[in-house]
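ARCHIVE CARD
Drawer: 12
Card no.: 0347
Subject: one protein chain, sequence and derived structure
Cross-reference: see card 0346
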Amino acid sequence: MVKSTNYKLSLVVPCYNEAQTIEACIDRILGFAHGRDFSVEIVVVDDASTDGGWPILQKIAEKHPEIKVFKHEKNRGKGAALRTGFVYATGDFVGIQDADTEYNPEDYLLMLEPVLDGRADVVYGSRYLRPETRSVLYFWHTQMNKFLTAVSNAFTDLDITDMETCYKLFRREVIQEIAPLLKEERFGFEPEITARVAEAKCRVYECAISYNPRTYEEGKKIGWVDGLRALYCVFHYSAHNAPLPVMVLIYLFIGAASLVVNNVCFVVATQLGMSLNPAIITALITAASFNYILCITILFRHKARWSAGAEIFWYALSVAFMGILDYVVTHALIRLIPFFNAHWSGAKLIASGIGFVCNFALRKWLVFPSKRKK
């Protein structure tokens, strides 16, 4: 546990084309830091701005030794800028501050309390917990944030109210362990970091914060495309660790989509003049390939334990095994139970249900198993 005085707070500030607000943002942080019984380090990462912001940052850094400034030669995105900042942050605790004036650094005083007294490893500042008066937000922007938070919660089994918030505070050892794993370059950082925090079993707290949103005319950058990317990131980074019922539902969707591909491919192949057996094999291989792609895209972690070649081998083996099992179960039911002897479709339905359960089990625990912990 860190003592409640004489510690250092690092605030990482990703900055892209914020020449109009960056000075006000840093002045606000400096004002917050003045006279405290702890020190504040400011780490600003300019993400190849084109509006003249970099010279402004250099002048500010010359006046204040507690400010570190870094520059990307090419624009890479908020997530990339944060990863750079995390590397150079030296504080006992590391927080995030946007390069505008939407968020108030004073709120970090409240967010620091759970980590200082040892209750939390990570603290989220929620814009939706505060009961007092607030600035009215964009309706659809707010609903999208709440929807993404709800989906993220279902996958991570966390109960937070604002996954997309900028204000996140970490113990330095926590973020330095997680940071090398991060991959998202843009606003996908938020769902990815939340998934990593949940996977690491961190103790997470929330605190109510103030929020003064700006308009798109004033420079707000996140849009609906980023919302779609965030939804993909929730699936991609959280699904493999989601509660079992959620994973089964996702695999039900994957199985249904693969069934559609199988049938469409079969119909197209036969319409093009392909004979029955080649059409069946072509449709099966196409559907199996489609199923594999969906599995590694939205449900399981690709190459978590096996190499790509070994993973494909086990996948192909599981597909072959399930094909044989489906054939054996269907024929056994038809032969042994009189009802199914007259109703083949019932036997096939039961075999398909058994196949679904076995397919999911083989993919989760054989083809795409979690990496063994050292």
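Annotation on reverse: The chain has a mean pLDDT of 90. Residues 244-367 form one domain.
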